[in-house]
Amino acid sequence: MNRRTFLTAVAVGGVAGVAGCVSSTNPGTGGETTTDDSPTEQSPTLTNKSFTVVSEDCGNEVSEASVSFQPDQSQVQVSGTIFGPSACYTGKLDSATYDGESDTLNIHVVTEQPDEDAMCAQCIQEIQYQASIGFENGLPETVVVTHTTGGEDHEVARASQSA
Fold first, then answer.
1. Rounded distance, CA 157 to CA 6, Å?
2. Cα–Cα distance between 108 and 95 in angstroms, integer?
3. Measured at the alpha carbon of residue 91, what is the angle toward residues 117 and 133, in degrees to the nearest 5?
4. Is the per-residue pLDDT at 6 higher than 80?
5. What is the distance between the alpha carbons of residues 153 and 10, in angstroms, rounded to a whole number?
6. Could you give the percent of the chain with pLDDT greater than 90?
7. What are the C-alpha distances in Å from 7 to residues 3, 16, 20, 87?
């Protein structure tokens, strides 16, 4: 082997070695893959709701509610009083819906007479209730509570977390 043949063999081997290293760092077609590592903000999701009548008794035409946000328990609590036209009426959660666009929880409470044939004391029935609405991914910014009394809807409470 002469000197020229030896140098040519070393040069070809070196290029082949470097080419192997380059091709192993960029396998495949050479296209780039990108991933979006930015955090995504999730909106609150309503998970559960409960409604309990705390007391019912003859009283006055009271229609009011108060709202409390409990982020440590991931829920919104509503305490309220609604009235019915006789002692046979009780309170009922008609609906609790979350509107993600406006970030608002809408709670609608009504009265109903469970037994249409029951004999009832003739008095205004005050019905105190508590409602708990559970969420995942945070709580809504605003809560609106509406009562239906006398056939009409009345907004009785509006609360905001930032207030």
1. 92
2. 5
3. 145
4. no
5. 92
6. 67
7. 6, 14, 20, 108
Q: What is the largest CA-CA distance in the chain?
A: 122
- What is the structure's pLDDT at 24? 42
Chain centroid, CA 10 distance in Å: 69
Average pLDDT taken over every residue of the chain: 84
CA pseudo-torsion sign 160, 103, 157, 48: negative
Where do we find the tokens 């929880």? 105
Cβ-Cβ contacts under 8 Å for 91 (sequence gap 6 or more): 51, 53, 56, 82, 84, 109, 110, 111, 127, 129
Q: Which of 153, 68, 138, 142 is nearest to 104 (CA)?
A: 142
Give the Å distances, CA to CA, from 2 to 5, 12, 15, 16, 82. 6, 16, 21, 22, 107
